[in-house]
Write a structure and sequence with these properties.
The chain has 253 residues and is mainly alpha-helical. It has twelve helices and no strands.
Length: 253
């Protein structure tokens, strides 16, 4: 599996990574979803999943290490993070033999439902006990392996346990970085990576960070209430985009 693009193709891919970085900088999430959606349409799902790996891991590690809540979040969230990481492997095994179209459609629908409920002030509150953490983490990991997206139900869970804005963004960085590292290892085991694609993924870190910096500049100018609104609308848009991609690309699995 290789990567062959002319100058126009390279510019298009770079622009996609800048756009995905902006979305991540504002919301603290969304990079894999944007990348998978746009790159799959032009390069195919296996290549898209390979190209997104290094920028996603690096930007999420950067996000996870910034904010001053790292140790407290690790102590509180370790059962959730551990199960979310381990459950990626069976998800990838299923991906290798099952059409992921309907799974992505379901994932997008659940994201939209959650966003609409919260925008209507019907938010879910959880205490975040170990049982809830492990069940949610396991489901999140399986869906990550199947679809490449680590958003649901992990992000709604992190919001439901009452994390404030900065801690929520940092916790999402932890979840996404660990999930993506597990995804990279699992994809490599299935021989879905190549040195050429990993090299292209490494180069893609530059436009991704440019976009992320722009997005973070914007986020710092949002109030807590405005950030919550933008965050939920972002979830709604990402969910709708996943549904649309699933319906328009029946061969994506």
């Amino acid at each position: 599996m290789g990567l062959s693009l002319d100058a126009a193709g390279l510019a298009m891919v770079a622009a996609i990574f800048v756009l995905a970085g902006v979305v991540k900088g504002v919301l603290g999430m969304g990079m894999p979803t944007i990348l998978l959606a746009l790159l799959t349409a032009t390069l195919g799902l296996p290549v898209a999943m390979a190209l997104m790996l290094v920028p996603t891991v690096v930007t999420n590690l950067w996000q996870a290490l910034r904010g001053g809540h790292l140790l407290a979040l690790c102590r509180r969230l370790w059962p959730f993070l551990l199960t979310a990481s381990l459950a990626v492997w069976p998800g990838v095994w299923v991906l290798a033999s099952v059409n992921a179209r309907w799974l992505s459609l379901l994932l997008g629908g659940l994201l939209m439902l959650y966003a609409v409920m919260n925008l209507r002030r019907r938010s879910l509150r959880l205490v975040g006990n170990p049982a809830q953490a492990c069940v949610t983490g396991a489901l999140n990991g399986v869906l990550t392996g199947m679809t490449g997206s680590s958003v649901f139900p992990g992000v709604p869970y992190l919001q439901a346990i009452g994390l404030p804005r900065d801690a929520l963004v940092q916790a999402m960085g932890l979840l996404f970085s660990l999930s993506t590292l597990s995804l990279a290892l699992a994809l490599n085991e299935r021989a879905l990576l190549s040195a050429e694609l990993l090299g292209g993924s490494l180069v893609a870190v530059v436009p991704a960070f440019i976009g992320m910096g722009l997005g973070q500049w914007w986020r710092r100018r949002l109030s807590e209430a405005r950030f919550r609104q933008v965050f939920l609308v972002g979830l709604l848009v990402l969910g709708a985009y996943l549904c649309l991609l699933s319906l328009l690309r029946p061969s994506m699995g």
